[in-house]
Amino acid sequence: MPDETVDTLVIGGGQAGLTMSHRLKQRGIAHLVLERGRIAERWRSERWDGLMFQFPNWSVRLPDFAFPHSDPDGFSDTAAIIAFIEDYAAFIAPPIRCGVAVTRLRHDAGGFLAEFAGGSIAARNVVIATGPYQRPLRPALLRDHPGLFQVDAAGYKNPAQLPDGAVLVVGAGASGAQIAEELMRAGRDVFLSVGRHNRLPRRYRGRDLIWWLAEMGIDRTPVEQRGPSRLLPVISGAHGGHTVDFRRFAAGGVTLLGRVTAARDGVLEIAPDLAANIANGDAYYATFLGIVDDFVAARGLDHPDDPLARLRLPDPPCLTAPLDAIDLRATRIRSVIWATGYGLDLNWIDIPVLDAAGAPRHRHGVSEVPGLYFLGLQWLSKMKSSFLSGVGDDAAVLADHIAGRG
Fold first, then answer.
1. CATH dotted code for 137-338
2. How far apart are alpha carbons 354 and 359 in whole angstroms?
3. In whole angstroms, how far apart are CA 292 and each of 126, 205, 233, 301?
4. What SUPFAM superfamilies does the entry give (predicted)?
5. pTM of the predicted protein model
6. Looking at residues 42-56, what average pLDDT do you find?
7. Where in the chain is the domain with CATH 3.50.50.60?
8. Beta pairing partners, 260
9. What mean pLDDT is reported for the chain?
């Protein structure tokens, strides 16, 4: 027998879970939110000290709640985002219990039963709002290498956390790029392994990238029109927000590498793909500039040309003559930061709703199991579904669906 029963249970107390609670309260639907740690726990414990949010302040918002700021075009640190989410929680006053980690979710008497240490809760509806960044993906290449400090991007805090010596950052997405730049500015010798990526401008023709995505309707692209690429854009809000340029990183002292493919006796084998990866990133960047140019011309908008955005630094030696291997001892690399992405961790859902890869089967957050929903995932219904400012639209649709179940 369950310890208690609720109409709708929301699992996860970050921005997605809180927004879901807000939408349910607006419709008078009784519910409870369970959070494994504290409100916005991943923002608190799985971000590094110097992280700057990648969205400009003017674009940060949650339903019926504006982000307070004095610099619309600036970028805020993690502490400001945590405070914003806490203030939002105070504003909506959700029925939430923190420190409750659900360990199993299963069917029960026509509904669902959520089990956790010390109890269980039955619910007619369940919304999984645990976010898209649950489990760091780390290759096993250096698993048994002695004397090497290794940490995932979620566990990296600051340069002082690392032992003396050079640092290898594996992965040049948004996190890897910003961490590599932070280490470079801290005076560390940095090696950056660059895989295939989608590079975009921070600003172009006087406007931020996020403004262009909204103005052109790209951020509302439905998931059905999503292209084959699953790469997230490489952008940064650090140091006032600037375009990530790996040639500029190299000019600052970073050694660029291709993908790390193998490790034997402290020697890493490097794929011969650095030039192709940089070229693909450049092509993606140039394509986006062209899309904006065509949009400006078609609409007759008053946004002056931006020739500086197309300037390219000379190719550095590490790009024209890339390394095919590096010896950790010879290069004095004593730390490795794995910025190799995240996967979902939903194995605690004991209901046949996950595919072979462990991802939920759903359409716009509505699963094929009546009463079971997902919120806050990347491309849940559209590009901006996982954006801080986009999750509210999906939450409203799910709340309407729950209300319609009677």
1. 3.50.50.60
2. 5
3. 41, 9, 16, 11
4. FAD/NAD(P)-binding domain
5. 0.94
6. 95
7. 4-134+344-404, 137-338
8. 270
9. 96
